[in-house]
Amino acid sequence: MSPGRFVAILRYQLQVSQEDFWTTLRTGKPAFRPSTPIPDESAALPAWIVRVLKDDLGKSEADIARMTPEEAHRLVDERWSRSNNDLTL
Predict the structure, then answer these.
(1) pLDDT at 5 (0 to 100)
(2) 36 and 62 fall within a common domain
């Protein structure tokens, strides 16, 4: 499952923050819903960036989950810059 999909399920279906989700799993105590998402959670990567990271750059789901949005965008930009420089006309 992509990091973005996981965050979307937590936010829209379960209506809990990631912190509350993992706390509930650890403690077995129910989460109060809806909980307030941590600002970091709203920074889910768009699907097209995840696709480029996985398919073009060979990144794993775990690698992608650890990336900041800025780092992911930078890697995609670098990949596309190299592709444009490799074109022969």
Answers:
(1) 81
(2) no
Whole-structure pTM over 0.70, yes or no? no
Instruction: Check residue 89 and give its pLDDT.
Output: 47
Distance CA 65, CA 81 (A): 23
Do 37 and 54 lie in one domain? The reply is no
Q: Which tokens is 33 given?
A: 């819903």
pLDDT digits (tens, 9 = 90+) for 50-72: 899 999 999 988 888 888 888 99
Task: Residue 35: give the domain boundaries.
Answer: 1-41
